[in-house]
Amino acid sequence: MYDNPGNATDQEKFLDQSIRVVKAESFEMKRCLDKGKTMDALKHALQMLNEMRTSELSPKFYYRLYMDTMHELQCLEVNLIQEFAQEPSKLSNLYECVQYASAIIPRLYLLVTIGGVFIKCGLGSRKEILKDLVEMCRGVQHPLRGLFLRNYLMQCTRSVLPDFPETEEMLLSHNSTLPKGTPQLKPRDGTVEDTIDFVLINFGEMNKLWVRMQHQGPSKEKEKREKDRLELRILVGTNLVRLAQLEALTEEMYVRDVLPSILEQIVSCRDTISQEYLMECVIQVFADDFHLATLNEFLNACGQLQQEVNIKILLIALVDRLALYTNSSIEGQPAPTKMQLFEIFSEQATNLIKNRPDMPMDDIVALHVSLVSLAVKCYPDRLDYANMTFLGLRQVIEEKGITDIEAFGKVGRELTKLLHIPIDEYKNVLRLSELPEYIKVMNYFDYRGQCNIAAYMVQNMLEQETILRHQEDVDAAFSLISALLKDQEKQPESSHETEEFADEQNLVARLLHLIRADDVDSQFLLLNSARKVLGEGGRHRLRYTLPPIIFELYRLVLQFADMKDEDEKWDVKIRKMFVCAMGTIGALVSTAELAELPMKLYLNGAITADRVLFEDNHTVVYEFVSKALSILEDDVVDSRDRVRCLQLTVGTLLKTTHLPEENWQPLANQTVLAAAKMFKKPDQVRSLVTVASLYWHGETLETNGDKMRNGKKVVDILRRSAKIARECLEPLVQQQLFIQLLSAYIYYYEDKCAEINVDHIEELISRTQDNAVQLDVSAEADNLEKQLGETIHRLQLAKIDVAASQVASPRTEPDLPQPPSENEGL
């Protein structure tokens, strides 16, 4: 094809030599044109065009030489048009003289150039000149040179090709109907049909030259030739683009003349590269309604292509384009008839898979991706079309014996695209339950693939706010995402340790909040049924999926609380909701083997039950708090966790206001006991200080909204705390505890706790000051000394306030100050 390919450096060298000649000759050519010496200018043009005969350059470098040369030829064309616009007769001699050039490549380039000038100046028959030029170009059969020559022919004649629909018979018929005296239309020089013939001839010859490149040269350079051919493919495709741009091209002409000629050329060339590229060009460049009119002919031609041609790409491109076209609307009206597109393409895909048993599985799935896209987008109401596609794919998978498709492999990526299409297009995941084959195809994925698709469904439901109002909706949703709800056979043992597992279970937890029935009774039944399904998910899933059910039950209780007068069984139903919540929390303890989470849920349930005044609500509150204390004692092991959980328990008891004294006291005593049983003595002290607030700010049913104000019990607990603090052996820690105790004493003293003795506080201050002397010099010791000073100052202010209040007249009790925090004074 070219004699001396060489390396890039050699090619650059040959190109530079040729370009220098082109520039030198073009300079002389322009000088002669400026002096009016046209013949001399043509001689220099011939010398310049001699460089196009080179065999030293590869297609890539030959193209660069071609572009520089064409630029100079355009300058020649412009000058000739300007010179002979006034005297067109001189062009005839020029056209004759050029044909005597000895070398065919320069001669034909000049003939094409002057032929274009001839047409633009209005001389001769445009139809005959075009026919003459396209036939003369047959004289160059070298693939590379011939391709560029014919491409130059298309470029030069692009603006002069006839694009008029009238034929001579049509003009005669039109003129015969005109009244006398009316100017008649003159026959135009060529019609669109002449242009079609011209372009089709040029296209056929260029394709032959392009294919011939594959068979020239040694077999070891086959890959290089294929690469070169791919670089030149756009030269051939330009012909099809020009045909598609003809405004006068009608559907009838396309069906009768254009497509049959193109398909005949493509099929007869028997070249894989050519067939694949040109068929794709046909799909992309011609109008959609043309494709609809010739769909069967095009698909029949696809069946005649070489076995190596990737027909999958062609069918996918055609399906996607027609699906988009038929699904569009113009001014609110549907696009032209959809015909039976799905049936046609489905049958074609089935035959293709059957006739090509070696077709890769990822190509088969990709083909079904386009079919599903067509079915879902163009026929949204025909669920049977989509289901039929999934059925066909499942049968192919079974025939090939595939049982486990990797999520991130080639087949897996295509299958993911396939399964995403109905989710995205229907915008309602519940419709997938009407596609029984969908789930069967999804089950061919490995565990990770199934989870990815299920998570994508949940994400879509959350984005679209797909509400689950009925039991059928819940069952359908859970069936589709079962891979996320239960352990699977393909599930790896360590899958629950991954971030993906946690993210997916959090999505499921969010989904549960979309269960919203139309009434309270139905909502309870839906939550109860969901709880049963989720309860089978295994211990690792329960920590994510059961808490949303519990909180939905609490929300339902609060919603139902305002309907007491509307339901005779109000008390029974409220109690039943709490029993369901308690049982669900119990599963977190027994099955999921959790401690802190169920304890928090128990405490939250106690607060919720205390807000709803139903029969025996105090029993429910007592049961929730007692179970939380039981978990604190038996299952919470870490010291810091125990302290935190105890604080939550104290906060819950302070929040409850409707417990009878007989129920409140055992819970409070048990809380004090739990505080005293802390493993570390500093934790015991801090916890007891926290618990003491129960007997000062706590409320029971008997107090009628007033605080308990049991100063004697508060003082007993604080003295017990001080005794434990004195037993601490670390001076620094002991000092911290003393300061915290002082803060607690002063707080209750400020709050008018009569049982607090100032002398006892001052004694504790004295002990704290003595202890400060024993501390080693350090930044922390200095900080504690500063805190102690602030505490003493606070006591002095408190004494002044108490003394003033005793002198002043009685007044309304002020709002209580906030209790000291755990770390106050540290």
Automatic annotation (TrEMBL):
Cellular component GO terms held in the UniProt record:
cytosol; retromer, cargo-selective complex
Location in the cell? Membrane
- Membrane-related topology note: Peripheral membrane protein
Supply the alphabetized keyword list.
Membrane, Protein transport, Transport
Q: Which Pfam families match?
A: Vps35 (PF03635)
Native source organism of the sequence: Caenorhabditis briggsae
Annotated GO biological process: protein transport; retrograde transport, endosome to Golgi
Task: Please state which protein family the record places this protein in.
Answer: Belongs to the VPS35 family.
**This chain belongs to which protein, by name?**
Vacuolar protein sorting-associated protein 35
Q: Which InterPro entries match?
A: Vps35, Vps35_C
- UniProt KW Protease keyword: no
Does the UniProt entry include the keyword Coiled coil? Answer: no
Where is it mostly found? membrane
What is the role of this chain? Plays a role in vesicular protein sorting.
Q: Where is this region: Disordered?
A: 805-826
